[in-house]
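This section describes the prediction task in plain terms. A model, or a person checking by hand, is given the sequence of a single protein chain and must write out its three-dimensional structure as a string of tokens. No templates, partner chains or ligands are provided. The sample shown here is typical of the held-out split.
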Amino acid sequence: MAIDFSFDPEHVAILDRVKEFMATQVAPVSETAEREGWDRSKWIPAIIEMRQAAKDAGLWLPHMPEEWGGMGLGHVTMAAISAEAAKTPMGPFALNAQAPDEGNMHTLLHWGTDEQKEDYLRPLCEGRVRSCFAMTEPEVAGSDPTLIKTHAYQDGDEWVINGHKWFISGARGAKFAILIARTEEDPDLPQAANSAFLVDTDTPGWEIVRDVETMSGSHNHCEIRITDMRVHGSKMLGGRGQGHLLGQARLGPARLAHCMRWIGQAETALEMMCERALNRYSHGSLLAEKQGIQWKIADSTMELYQAKLMVLHAAYLIDKGADFKSEVSMAKHHVANALWNIIDRAIQVHGALGYSTDTPLAGMLTQARWSRFADGADEIHQMRIAERTLAAYKDTGSVNAATGRLPI
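The expected answer:
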């Protein structure tokens, strides 16, 4: 049979090495940082040290081709690696496989010119710089890039850009941005109005206004003002009017990469729930012996199982070169909600302890809340899923094409 959910020995060995690396090199650093309340000044040298350890261990840049210094692993293997790495907050950073840089690397690899790859992709792969992806704007719906108001007009060999962006993750400290701006007026298709530019963040006219404070604090999600910023024509990434196409091509696999990392967080929460249930005694028995707690564990286990299957199947489709939009959309919606549900149940089982900051659960929940609107709100994904299901039924009289095109 062609269906096989096991990894070959080579990739099992890689995953074992990742687990050991996270346990010995990354988790102790994260525990120390949490205990001592590290700030940026302490985190940066620690990350540099962990990254050198990852290089020495042969675990650097697992998602990129070998010619770019990576391990050349596909999305299926990355699903397991990313889930494991995300069990510790800085795990993906140690491997240089963190958002938004991971998605930007793939984008540059497939859309960049040779010169752009040398100028931007190589230092990103080598871990010498960081980047951001500047698309979302406060004045228009982030889920509809055709409404983008940031505007670029051509002036000789340069483009002059004016606009306003926000929630640009990783902007503070980024060496460059992939910026989406409107360059075409009244195109035949609304999706052909935008273009993408590579922008050095020290370019005059690029201004970080603030790090937007969220319900879980400041996490380098910045507001950006762009005023008469001049960018040479050679910095356009892809062709004119291809910004929407590029953005969607980038965000599909990036959504799935988020899901991979969320699985690691959800599994951590479920394991904490089990640990608490097996050790907390109340009203004559352990929590693990009470039906109400068992149901929480059962529901969480089923949701995590579903999440893993959906992510593995979507990753398989990407590796195969097949259409994956619908499967990634369904995975993104399901995994985001499973993450929230599982962490919330874990907090309930821990009681007041879970609500406190004595465990990581409270911070995990406030971080998890963004997952249900980042990279497409739940409602947008539900709308697209329904549209594809109705279209499949109208075209074929069956919903199989909308439910994974599986042989059952």
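For orientation: DSSP finds twelve helices and ten strands in the chain.
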